From TrEMBL:
A biological process term (GO) from this entry: microtubule-based movement
Polar residues bias locations: 567-584
Keywords for this protein: ATP-binding, Coiled coil, Microtubule, Motor protein, Nucleotide-binding
Coiled coil: 352-409
Signal peptide: none
GO terms, molecular function: ATP binding; microtubule binding; microtubule motor activity
GO cellular component labels: microtubule
Protein name (record): Kinesin-like protein
Domain Kinesin motor: 19-343
Species: Rubroshorea leprosula
PANTHER family linked: CENTROMERE PROTEIN E (PTHR47968), KINESIN-LIKE PROTEIN KIN-7H (PTHR47968:SF55)
SUPFAM superfamilies: P-loop containing nucleoside triphosphate hydrolases
Chain positions covered by the region annotation Disordered: 566-587, 716-739
Length: 967
């Protein structure tokens, strides 16, 4: 062992486990041993092995080994210098590099421990001074302390105070000796003086014990603080601090061998206690450091804990007496040495960093950790994550609001529908009762049936109609078709549903005077004048069958007032008070009669108290005769408002939506000629026609009322707060007496008030009956145009938002104008408007888990067009494709014709273009077969529960499918 390898060599070993360096020093026989003719039985046969050379018996050879091998074995002729250089120097001088070190001398009494350690300490200190001399660029501070452990008491050998010292446990430094004097050593001479002081103190102690033997453990500690090289790359060098312990243990002989008693026995026990604990610690450490190591069982092991298996390099020099008389102790020493050489320590460079260096190191560590976080964050956290989250949250909130609003609207709509359905069912039950009564009375089929539009919001109001006495009721608007009109309608209708519409008959009652009108039964005065519906129009009307909401009230019991006995012979043409229409247009000369589909029963103010109205259901004829009884109102001022008649003509226009759920073209074709005919015949003012067919504002307002039923409550509330209109005053002046009259009247007032911006002419019988749902269902004047308008807006938005062509096709083909489609179309319109607004603001939308942007939608649309072009190849023959190309104006000699055609689809707002596009796309993707043949499409009924709508389920399913295809 040596330190010639230099400081670097020492530091390389730092941080690594290394075994305690164990060497054996065999001294020569001393004078006493020679004097008693003792012989030396031990021989160092080489630098590492010592053998027992006495002649052992066979049994003894089996018990004791004869050869021992260690790191180094020093024979009796080896000098202490040699022992230092090869057995302690490297370990001891580790202190100058900041590594703790310890050098022990272990052996029996008089084996040469003190002799050896004195030399080791001297040489070490000499080399330390030399090292300091060679490293003048570094600053060194040496501190010196010496302590003695005697009878498990610790004493400071420097201080004159003989008070035993206490051992304290310091969390950083381990076990420290309280009040231990540390003398700063300035130079060699000063160190020598201190050693002298220590020796003097020890002598004093020994003197006090009146003994000269070294039965105590002495520990000389030299702590060196030095400014070290910049191990960490800091500007300022760090400070190293380490301690080297020179330990001269007491004799390891057993207490029994002291052959003493009393104080000497106690002394020996304590010595052996520390040595026994030292041996135990060594044996424990040899097996590893996992188990409990009893450092604290003795003062010696507590103080030397770091030197025994801790942060220190350790060298143990075991001294032996060669005398045969000490063979047993020598064997024990060799056994201890053998255990010690198995013990490992883990020495570290003890760096005391300056605050500045510490700050810099911490900053470097912080930067390193931040880099790790950033690199880790890149893998998991997308950039602008927080902003993205906020954006998503906003979108979610917006969508939630839209969903809430639409859900509320739907709920209100379904509630209205359900309420209506219940009312109709109630009315139907009542009608069955009345039908029985009528049948019994033998008046069935004598009067055309009425299709009554319930204008009343109240439950049970219609159920009371059959027995209702409405003395104040002045006008009854009944709509019907004339056979010729029906025939015309057939000719204009493109769908079977229109051709099968029932031909309705009008019972016209007209009277100039105002006797009470009795809508009685069998006593109907003009029964014989009633005209039967032409049987040629009695074909079952599928369309009518489908309409659950339709009310057919048999008119047989309608006891028309005697005030108008000539309602069929046009005798009333001079009477403006009652406007009746007959399908035969026999009253065409009268503007009032020319209303053609209306029956207005006017009752004089003075006679209004006796108006009664009854209606029953004629089950047998409900598909044959149907007359639309639009509204019943009270109007004592009717004669003052001839426009009532004209307005009632507007009811004829409502025929165009008489349960038409299919083709708007058919509707248009139906209504126009009819109205034209009426205009010719009845001289209906043009303005009124316009009001019906050309005034989008009027229609819009009406449709707004329809569309919301949802909003009806709001409308009512607002109307209730509005100022009294003329119509209001008019109606209020009717002195309504019966509950149902009041309901009708109230309803009329409410609706009229909501139409304050209308002209007075619009506050008519028609308008009074502007129940949202009912107006749509029975007075279809508003919905077709509104349907066109909404569909047009939807188509434009489809184009703007790059909506899927398949989706457009399905929607286009599915929703053709049924009033019940309004909800879906309104939802679609709102959805598209929201989409457009969002896109225009540069935002995106998450739909079905996918992020939609204008760009992504455009790409999806292009993909879809490509897909459709491929489908053309599959779906059509070459000839069919050529025909298609010609039809769509694509040159047959051009390239990519299929793709050209795909890019032409759904690119115009022209409805024919859209219809053709839809037809082609449906063919290409098989919608025609798969979806559009659904019975739901043509036999759609009002669902009793929204969730049961297969139509809407199909619609959603297609949307989801398209979303998946797009992404
Ligand atoms: N290697 C050696 N060569 C010559 N003399 C030696 C050697 N080792 C020890 N001695 C002599 O042996 C005697 C006892 O030595 P020393 O006091 O060092 O023993 P010790 O182990 O310290 O005993 P104790 O445990 O009582 O302190 C001394 O006089 C010393 O000079």
């Amino acid at each position: 062992m040596g330190v010639d390898g230099g400081e670097e060599q020492i530091q390389e070993r730092a941080g690594c486990e290394e075994r305690i360096y164990v060497s054996i020093r065999l001294r020569p026989l001393n004078e006493n041993e020679i004097a008693r003719n003792d012989v030396s039985d031990w021989e160092c046969i080489n630098e590492n092995t010592i053998i027992y050379r006495d002649n052992l018996s066979v049994s003894e050879r089996s018990m004791y080994p004869t050869a021992y091998t260690f790191d180094r074995v020093f024979s009796p002729d080896c000098s202490t210098r040699q022992v230092y250089e090869q057995g302690a120097k490297e370990v001891a001088l580790s202190v100058v590099s900041g590594i703790n070190s310890s050098v022990f001398a272990y052996g029996q009494t008089s084996s040469g421990k003190t002799f050896t350690m004195s030399g080791i300490t001297e040489y070490t200190m000499a080399d330390i001074y030399d090292y300091i001399e060679r490293h003048k660029e570094r600053k060194f501070i040496m501190k010196f302390s010496a302590l003695e452990i005697y009878n498990e008491s610790v004493r400071d050998l420097i201080s004159a105070d003989s008070t035993p010292l206490r051992l304290l446990d310091d969390p950083e430094r381990g076990t420290v000796v309280e009040r231990l004097t540390e003398e700063t050593v300035k130079d060699r001479n000063h160190f020598g003086e201190l050693l002298s002081v220590c020796e003097a103190q020890r002598q004093i102690g020994e003197t006090s014990l009146n003994e000269t033997s070294s039965r105590s453990h002495q520990i000389l500690r030299v702590t060196i603080e030095s400014s070290a090289r910049d191990f960490l790359g800091n500007d300022k060098p760090s400070t190293l601090t380490a301690t080297v312990n020179f330990v001269d243990l007491a004799g390891s002989e057993r207490a029994s061998q002291t052959q003493s008693a009393g104080t000497r026995l106690k002394e020996g026990c304590h010595i052996n206690r520390s040595l026994l604990t030292l041996g135990t610690v060594i044996r424990k450490l040899r097996k590893g450091k996992n188990g409990h190591v009893p450092y604290r069982d003795s003062k010696l092991t507590r103080i030397l804990q770091s030197s025994l298996g801790g942060n220190a390099r350790t060298a143990i020099i075991c001294t032996l007496s060669p005398a045969r008389t000490h063979v047993e102790q020598s064997r024990n020493t060799l056994l201890f040495a053998s255990c010690a050489k198995e013990v490992t320590t883990n020495a570290q460079v003890n760096v005391v960093m300056s605050d500045r260096a510490l700050v810099k190191q911490l900053q470097m560590e912080l930067a390193r950790l931040q880099d790790e976080l950033r690199s880790a964050g890149t893998a998991f956290i997308p950039p602008h994550f927080a902003a993205l989250l906020r954006e998503k949250d906003l979108e979610i909130e917006k969508l939630k609001q839209v969903i809430i609003e639409l859900s509320q609207q739907l709920n209100r709509a379904w509630s209205e529908v359900e309420g209506l359905r219940r009312r109709q069912q109630a009315v139907g039950d009542e009608r069955l009762v009345k039908q029985e009564r009528s049948s019994t009375a033998g008046v069935d089929n004598q009067y055309p049936k009425l299709r009554v539009q319930n204008t009343c919001d109240y439950e049970n109001s219609l159920t009371e109609i059959p027995v209702l006495a409405v003395p104040q009721c002045r006008a009854v608007s009944v709509r019907s078709f004339t056979p010729s009109q029906a025939s015309d309608r057939q000719s204009f209708s493109s769908e079977e549903s229109f051709t099968q519409l029932p031909v309705l008959r009008v019972n016209i009652s007209h009277g100039t005077s105002s006797p009470p009108i009795n809508f009685g039964g069998s006593d109907l005065p003009y029964k014989e004048n009633e005209e039967r519906v032409d049987e040629s129009f009695d074909d079952p009307c599928k369309e009518v069958k489908c309409i659950e909401s339709e009310l057919r009230i048999r008119y047989a019991d309608l006891n028309m007032p005697v005030a108008n006995p000539n309602r069929y012979d046009n005798a009333n043409r001079s009477s403006p008070g009652l406007n009746t229409n007959s399908y035969d247009n026999s009253n065409a000369s009268s503007p009032a009669i020319n209303a053609a589909t209306s029956v207005l029963t006017d009752v004089d103010n003075e006679d209004k108290a006796n108006l009664a109205f009854r209606s029953t259901l004629s089950k047998e004829q409900k598909e044959l005769d149907s007359v639309h009884l639009d509204y019943i109102i009270s109007s004592s001022e009717k004669l003052s408002y001839p426009w009532l008649v004209e307005k009632d003509i507007s009811g004829c226009s409502s025929l165009k939506l008489t349960r038409s759920r299919s083709c708007e073209e058919g509707v248009t074709g139906l209504i126009s000629p009819w109205c034209e005919s009426e205009e010719k015949n009845s001289h209906i003012p043009i303005w009124h026609k316009r009001d019906v067919t050309e005034s989008p504002g009027s229609i819009q307002r009406k449709f707004c009322a329809f569309k919301y039923s949802f909003r009806s409550e709001m409308s009512r509330n607002s109307s209730q707060n509005s100022s009294k209109s003329d119509a209001d005053n008019e109606l209020q002046a009717q002195n309504v007496t019966t509950p149902n009259e009041k309901k009708f009247a109230d309803r009329a007032v409410q609706v009229t008030e909501t139409e304050q911006d209308h002209t007075l002419a619009e506050k008519t019988v028609k308008d009074v009956g502007l129940d949202p749902i009912q107006d749509d269902m029975g007075s279809p004047s508003g919905w077709p145009l509104e349907f066109d308008k909404i569909r047009g807006e939807i188509i434009e938005l489809w184009h703007v938002c790059h909506i899927s062509l398949v989706y457009r096709t399905y929607f286009f083909l599915l929703f053709k104008g049924d009033p019940k489609d309004y909800i879906y179309m309104e939802v679609e319109l709102r959805r598209l408007s929201f989409l457009k607004d969002t896109f225009s603001q540069g935002n995106h939308i998450v739909e079905d888990g996918q992020i939609l942007t204008p760009d992504s939608s455009m790409k999806a649309l292009n993909r879809e067009r490509h897909m459709l072009s491929q489908q053309m190849q599959k779906r059509f023959s070459e000839g069919e494709r050529e025909n298609l190309f010609r039809k769509w104006g694509i040159g047959l000699d051009t390239k990519n014709r299929r793709l050209q055609l795909a890019h032409l689809l759904w690119t115009d707002t022209n409805m024919q273009h859209n219809a053709e596009s839809a037809a082609l796309v449906a063919k290409l993707v098989g919608l025609a077969e798969q979806e559009m043949t659904s019975n739901e499409l043509f036999k759609l009924k009002f669902p009793t529960k929204p969730r049961t709508s297969k139509k809407f389920d199909n619609f959603k399913r297609i949307r989801n499918l398209i979303s998946i295809l797009q992404h």
